Every structure is written in structure tokens, then in C-alpha cells.
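User: Sequence in, structure out. Go.
Assistant: Echoing your sequence, followed by the C-alpha cells.
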Amino acid sequence: MLDLGCLESALLLLSAVLLTAFCVLVWWKAVGGRVKELISEWRRLPVFWKVVLPLVFGAFCLHGSTKNGNVANVQVLPVVKSNYQSGNGENHSNLVNPVNPVQKKFIASSTVRQNKGRKPTTRTDLYVRSWNTTGVWEESFWFEFENDFVFPFGTNHLKGVELLSWGEIWSTHRKDAVLAELGEKVAIGRGVSRFEWEYIAASETNESKYVYSWYNGLVNRETNSVINGRIELMRSGDILVATSGVERIIPRELSFEYDGFGQDNEWVRANFTNANEILSIGYAQWVNDQVGVDLTNGLYKLIVTVPEKPLEITELNVGDYSVAITNAGEYVFLLEKGVEYPLSVFPETATNFIYSAVDDVSNMYSRQAFNGYWTRDHGRLELVVPISPLSFIFPRIRWNPELYVTPETW
């Protein structure tokens, strides 16, 4: 079968050779008569100039070869290596390094956007366009997230992923860091398959996410076996994988220990020995009953208000209590006066929580700022809240009790 690509390359090469020959012929006709005169003038030059002039000329050439020019006005297309098998059994392979398919090639600016009609961006669309134009089997590039999107992974927030053409996504450039995969290794066949990606903002769905889609992917490069699949990376850290219409969710693996979500029944049972008593009236009501009004049992209540649903499951620690927060609302803790309780959140960017404390449920002393002290009949409250990941002040809460004696002269 005639390869049109090879024929086109041969014609271009022949045209270049003929054009060069024509230019040489024109130059010779124009200045050929002056060549002997120039040689004679060179021979009459002193030895000093015969040495200096070539050195100066060589220095200028060397300096010019190190210049990149105005790269802002140059568009560089990535040379994507393909290696897939067509239906007739021909193996089209020009893979650079078949041992390590992860190949970093270049960084270039782009004025072309291929996906979903969005505005032009950088090299991402150049890679995707090359994959779809030439076909590809084993290729990858670093996909950098936009729109301040991050993907929770362990204790980190990924700002990009390694995107592999055959249907996998890695958290790093290493193969042992697979985030998600279609389950079947696919090739993007030229003129047969297509790959697309899309960012969906939270205003359009429950949460923002990146969607990567493979259409008519050639399973193991076989044209008689194709699948459609997609991988969705959600801001919460969950992953959706869909192949041939079947979807499955891969929940985020939290990097901290937790019991239940929020202060549900599972959380109560894990933190209190009298869980049945508490659950019979409800945890929030039980805490209010313990604090009461004008009681002298040395107990008070801390209220942490979460104004809106966190972008991801957030860990709140109050002393030995740990809560996995998934929704907006109030989270209450029964604490003892005279004891210092460390406060912390993870991720540390969860700085919009509101902290308040009450000794009697009929009165509320709230504090949203950096530090605060209150003096009432029931003692003094010291509260330092987690306000910044860069804060060097140890977040904590401590209600110092006071002792009163009657009469004062006793």
C-alpha cells in the first residue's frame, strides 16, 4: 500500500534540492567573475589579517548559534511518537523509548485550543491535537491543572497529573503512582479514535472536576476491538472510571484516622463509653444538658461552625477528638475547664471555620479573630484559632476557672 506520508516527504526533499541548485546557479552567474579577483585580494593581505578575520567570523557564528530568537512568535508542535497496529496487521512504530513511555519533550506556547471551544492555552492542546492527528500508542505528558484546581492525594494537593495516552493517569512520572486506569490498554488510532479533556466548574455540577475521555480506543491496538471510556478527577479526591457505559467510583483514601463522618452515631460510639445514653437523646442535646445553666461542674461547650460544605473531607481536631467533616453545620465538644486542648485542621487551608465557647447554654461568647480573653463570673477563656497555614502561634483553647470566696474578707 502506498504511504502518502513518505511520498509527501520525498517530494519535499526533491523540491529543496532543485531550489538549492537553482540558487547556486544564479549566484555563480552573478558573481562568478569576481571570485578570482577576491582570491587575489585575500592573498595580498598581511598574515595578521589572515589570522584575525577568520577568528572574528567564527566567534560571531558561534555566538549566533546560541541564540533562541524571539520564541514568543514561534509555535512548536510536539512530535508525538506512535506505535499502533492497523487492521491489516501492519505495525506503525516510531516510538523513541519503548522501555520508558513517559517522555518529556518541550514547553511551548500555543494559540490553538482543540477541546470544547475553550480559549487557547499552552502545550496541553498541542499534545492532544497531535495524539488525535497522528495516532498514538505509548505516549504521555504532564497535564497541569487550571482554574486553581487541586486534587487531594494523601497529604498533598496535586497541581497536575501524568496523562498517558493508553488510558491511565499517574500522580507522578513513576509507574508505581497510578491514580486511575480504564482497565484496558488502548491506542488512539489515526482517523479512528479520539481523545478529549474538559474542565467542569462547580457551578455546573456538585463539584469541580476534570474529565478525560477516550472514544473508539483500540484495545491492544486491535481495530476490531474498540471501547469508549472516561476518567473523572473530582475536587473532593474521588475518582470516577467509566468504560462501555459501566461506571464505578473510587473513593478518596483519607490520610488520617476517623470514625464515621461528622458527629454521627459511629463517631459517638467510638468516643464515649456511655454512647447508648447519649444517642437516646441525641449528642447535641446531651452536651447542652451537661453544660446546663449556672452549673458548677467545671464543664463548658466549644462550638465550631462550618459555614459551607468543604471542598474536600476536612479533619478537625480538638484535643483527643477527631472529626471527619463532610458538610456545613455546627460541631460541638464538651470540654473541661483548666485543661488546654490543642486545635488543628487538615488541610490547613480550612481557615473559614468559626470558633465559639459557652459556659451556660443561655450565654454565648464567640471569637473569630486571632486571640481573645473574656472575664466573667465563670473564669477566663483563652482561644487561639487556626487562622493560617503559616501561623507560628499554637492554636488552642483553655478556659481557666476562678475561685470565689464569700465573704471576701474571710
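User: And one key feature?
Assistant: The longest strand covers residues 209-219.
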